[in-house]
Amino acid sequence: LSVAHAGFAYYLQFQILSGLARKGLHPSSHAELAKEAMHTLLYDFGVCLYVVIYVGSFAFACYSFLMLSCGAGAGYGAAILLIAYGWLASAYLLAWYFCNCCAGAVMTKSQSRRQVPQQPHQQPVVLGVPMPMQGP
After folding, report:
1. Under 8 Å between Cβ of 99 and 37
2. Which of 122, 121, 105 minimizes the C-alpha distance to 113?
3. Is 115 left (phi over 0), alpha (psi -120 to 50) or beta?
């Protein structure tokens, strides 16, 4: 079960990055990253298969409390850790997605404010490049 959870993390990252690469986009764009993640979560068959495993493991962890009514101390710890993983992984997924959406919106607004229209006769200035020498 732990191999399935760890393997899915790599699988999801690979799917998102390869989706961005197919579109010719760089993964540093928060808005495009969130958009591709949502597309992968909605339309990828591997994600659909993992959701069944994820819900099943969470349900089994909840059911395991009934099976451990004999007083097994270490078993309760394992069940609590699996339930905590279920809640924390879901919370992390939501926080990651919404933070990328918000960061993408903020980056888009700040970039649109920073863009100053250039006059047609002005040449752009590049810092660190020597200016060409003018004749005497």
Report:
1. no
2. 105
3. beta
Residues of the chain predicted below pLDDT 50: none
pTM of the model: 0.66
Locus of tokens 């390869």: 18
Number of neighbours of residue 37 by Cβ within 10 angstroms: 21
> Which residue, chain included where needed, has tokens 């790599």?
10
- Our separate counts of H helices and E strands in the chain read 4, 0
pLDDT for 106: 67
- Reference 63, options 51, 48, 73, 75; nearest CA is 75
Q: Distance of CA 110 to CAs 36, 43, 104, 117, 127, Å?
A: 22, 31, 10, 15, 22
CA-based nearest residue to 78, from 59, 98, 64: 64
